Amino acid sequence: MENKFDALDLRILKELSKNARVVYSTLAEKLNVSNSLIHQRVKKLHDSEVLEQPVYQLNADILGYETTAFTQIMVTNVRFIDDVIKQLEEIPEIVECTNIAGRYALLVRIFALNNTHLRNVIYDKIQTIKGVEGTNTTFAFETSFRRPICVDLYPN
């Protein structure tokens, strides 16, 4: 793999992963470079698609989501995966969907108001999708930590 990010790019990524709303002039001062260079580099990082849209991380507990679960989804045939994913994307309680190896083809993360709400999402929304053969759900007691990808390990 060709290294397309230099040391300054990685320093910018590290800072933006901590605070995507940092003012560019503040970032430039911290990294000891010009404001215009920060603007150029951030545009380059956006264009390279390493930077995706910055969003706030919402606190599920404060919003009243008492149940977090990970549900593995079996698909009857690989040809259904794309259609199943499109339908899963329409379920607002599902915040993440990952294609995985093994008997279960997909893994989704669900935030629900309570266990009854979760059951309804699984039984009424997920298991009714054409191509879904079955599910296996694991409850999460809590998220102990969450962090952005470590850019310090990037080979350059």
Keywords:
Alpha-Beta Plaits; Arc Repressor Mutant, subunit A; alpha+beta; 2 domains; four-stranded antiparallel beta sheet; elongated; about 160 residues; single chain
What would your notes on this structure say?
The chain has 156 residues and is α+β, with helices and mostly antiparallel strands. The chain has 2 domains: 7-55, Winged helix-like DNA-binding domain superfamily/Winged helix DNA-binding domain (Arc Repressor Mutant, subunit A, Orthogonal Bundle), CATH 1.10.10; 67-140, Lrp/AsnC effector binding domain/regulation of amino acid metabolism (RAM) domain (Alpha-Beta Plaits, 2-Layer Sandwich). The protein is 35% helix and 20% strand. Strands 2-3-1-4 form a 4-stranded antiparallel sheet. Strand 2 and strand 3 (106-112) form a beta hairpin.
